[in-house]
Amino acid sequence: MTASHPLCPASLPPLVAVAHGSRVPEAPRTVTGLLALVRSLRPGLRVVLGHVELNEPPLPDALDALPAGDAILVPLLFGRGHHVKHDLPRAAAGAAHLSVRIAAPLGPHPLLAEALAGRLAETGWTGAGRPDGGVVLAAAGSRDPESEAGARGTAALLSARLGGTPVVPAYASAAEPTVPGAVAALRAAGRRNIALASCFAAPGRFAAHCAEAVPALPAARPLGAHPALARLVLHRYDEARARAGAPALHPSRGGLARAS
What we know:
Elements: E1 15-19, H1 26-41, E2 47-51, H2 59-64, E3 69-75, H3 82-94, E4 98-102, H4 110-122, E5 133-139, H5 145-161, E6 167-171, H6 179-188, E7 193-198, H7 205-213, H8 227-243, E8 248-249, E9 256-257
Parallel strand pairs: 1-2, 1-3, 3-4, 5-6, 5-7
Antiparallel strand pairs: 8-9
Helix pairs in contact: 1-8, 4-5, 4-8
């Protein structure tokens, strides 16, 4: 058998995508579709899935199933809240046979703004760049101020992507404003052509709660297997590798790229 080249995807650390988990049956299928797209962009890279809660496999079981060596956790989460700061490090510490690095969450990043804008465009909303346009960016919410700052950063990037259209972050729980509160603030500023952007990787209780709170608005679906989100997952993986001095791989072709 021919030995793998040290830079071949097959010899790289596995990418362990960490989803939150949901009782909504469509959620696991959506995440599986996203990871299928990730694998197609980096053929040969081992990509596995673990969940923080509610779905199989739980993250500790996904880590236990890996052979001894390195692994990189990529949270399919959008801010540095409790799960990223506590649950993922706890699971990594419990996998004694692995050397685990934890990548940054998916937001904020221009690729996330690209995916959000793409899902908004699918709704037929026409407010981008118009004086009456506005967007509510629906997110899960967290009591961690760093998570809230990340949501504001994502909102700013999406606003720039939409030609300066105001984007107000709103939360399903634990933080203010709520989605109706954000809509009221936009309307008070004279914005009438308002849409809802869904900053969720997959359908779930929080995503549904946000959309149901404003049924008259065009509501984008969760991001799922959007090409920009798949590229972002690989970008976060490459960033985590680069922090240890390894050369990053191009997120769409699997070739070498200069680490930033």
